[in-house]
Amino acid sequence: MSTERTEISNLGEFGLIDHLTRNIEIQNASTVLGVGDDAAVIDHFGKQTVLTTDLLVEGVHFDLIYTPLKHLGYKSVVVNLSDVYAMNAIPTQIILSIGISNRFSLEALDEFYEGVYAACEKYGVDLVGGDTTSSQKGFIISLTAIGEVAPDNYVKRSTAKKGDLLCVSGDLGAAYVGLLFLEREKKIFIESPGVQPDLEGETYVIGRLLKPEARKDIVEFFAANQIKPTAMMDISDGLSSEILHICKDSNLGCVLYEEKIPVSEEMKKAAFKFEIDPTACALSGGEDYELLFTVAQEDYEKLVLNEQISVVGYMTGPEEGAHIITKGGSKHPVTAQGWNHLRS
Amino acid sequence: MSTERTEISNLGEFGLIDHLTRNIEIQNASTVLGVGDDAAVIDHFGKQTVLTTDLLVEGVHFDLIYTPLKHLGYKSVVVNLSDVYAMNAIPTQIILSIGISNRFSLEALDEFYEGVYAACEKYGVDLVGGDTTSSQKGFIISLTAIGEVAPDNYVKRSTAKKGDLLCVSGDLGAAYVGLLFLEREKKIFIESPGVQPDLEGETYVIGRLLKPEARKDIVEFFAANQIKPTAMMDISDGLSSEILHICKDSNLGCVLYEEKIPVSEEMKKAAFKFEIDPTACALSGGEDYELLFTVAQEDYEKLVLNEQISVVGYMTGPEEGAHIITKGGSKHPVTAQGWNHLRS
């Protein structure tokens, strides 16, 4: 962060908005009117509009002690877009509101918006509006994403069918292990402020936490290969929890194979340093922002073309419940413990 | 508020969302998919989509000491819809996210949502999504409204023309005077908790603050009478400030007549109790949520059909600046002091 400091109060609210939005370039022809009026106007002839929102609160969703503001801006957008991709839709616009206390300088906000705009550019979305206000305590971020999808081509959580293949993108659990490292270093830093952080070799897992990506590529792969998942959602709370959502909403059970759950070598090594089971990280760790989806069995041949997709199990009737078959061959119910459980 | 208290932590996040959304009835055919999935899906064939958002923070935008939660829920929606009407558009959906600290009971949240749903019903909009999270301090409300408008029929702030009539809906300044009463009673209550509030006879001004309405009727009147304002915005920060926005964005000046500014008898009487000038309240008081708009002179005959519309002045060239002609006939520049100025 720069050592310069401009007080936000010197700009006033409108000056601040002007400042923060001065570099916007409209990317989508459908963006008829963006920032600067009461509302944004978007043209969606012959498409369906997808909307999703996230509210992120300092101290609840992020810790500024180890989260660079630029990364926070980037991640805030990505997390929101991930929900749009999880609908099998393409995000086109976002709206961003922030609440800030007077401890933030303009330079700090600029860093945050740098990350926001970097994500907008990478994912081809326009920032079209928002609201800026003060907060009594901490940083508050509210993001709404709008996306489009061909009529009735969106994918819900509730429409998986018995016999469908259960699939995930990428690898899981790394963001959680990255968090463990950062929490450890934070503790050391608080106790001994002179000690330099020891994060050598952990760039992959920490990067997965601080700068996640949304799986635009997977949704584009579906479109290019005429695959329509039967159900889909993004993995923000850990694989177990999300699988149970799909089972419950689709009124099905499932079988999940531990050996098929994709985990990276970096995550495995890092998990062992904390003496925790990599599979537990994948099942219960959150914030990977991969996609969890089900496809009809006849799509299997198309799926294997993509190395970023792993088939991890299949859907069963509801009477069979949701189970995981461990590497040792034993069978256990899938339980949604989330990462709060792992933390304690 | 009921004396019963259910801890939100007993429900869990998903239980809470289920609880809060259990009574939703979809009102618009265009709402293809509402609450319960990663995002909402909206069909907008042949229309343009309007989006707007507000972030409301306890202690900054509202004071729960004198704001009933049901009114807060109602007002949060109305304030957001007002921005859609200010685009000459019709709101169709809203997305609502809230951040709450553990001092809120489920019953308290229910009251808030009662107000939200009352506003949704009154204005014919669907709540289609949102996010619920905890906050470290205070209540945080993030609302996004989506509306539709016939292609290119939306109205910006920047398109007023020289010679256009400057108009406002309803009456102005009452919400500000209502705030003065409530702030006075709060002070008395804090100093002497046993004293009952003395708000006798002030229901109009207090109602204008606590339960404002958005001017749906005005936008419908425009449509029914083939009037398209040349510029429009809603009055949230006081008439002066908003007029200056239209002047600046349209690169024009204006003449405003004090005697034409609509004020209610109730507001005038109440302002005199505080020994302040009713015109100052109308110019600088906020939160009236009336519409400020400009129309071509040839629309004057149509406008006078509506008693809720007052012509308060006209637009001039930019070189003439923005001026107010007082009742005494003197001419002063319009300045944007906002109500913070009045407060101090």
Classified in CATH, the superfamily of the largest domain in chain A is PurM-like C-terminal domain
- Mean pLDDT across the residues of chain A is 87
- In which order are the strands of the major sheet of chain A placed? 8-10-7-11-9-12-13
For this structure, the quaternary state is homodimer
Number of helices of chain A: 11
What composes the largest sheet of chain A?
7 strands, mixed
Give the domain tally of chain A.
Answer: 2
Low-confidence stretches of chain A: 338-344
Radius of gyration of chain A: 21 Å
**SS strand fraction of chain A:** 15-25%
Helix content of chain A: 25-40%
Q: From the 3D coordinates, which CATH architecture of the largest domain in chain A would you assign?
A: Alpha-Beta Complex
* Backbone shape of chain A: globular
CATH class of the largest domain in chain A: Alpha Beta
CATH topology-level fold name of the largest domain in chain A: Phosphoribosyl-aminoimidazole Synthetase, Chain A, domain 2
**SSE order of chain A in H/E notation?**
HEEEHEHEEEHHHEHEHHEHEEEH
Helix-strand category of chain A: alpha+beta
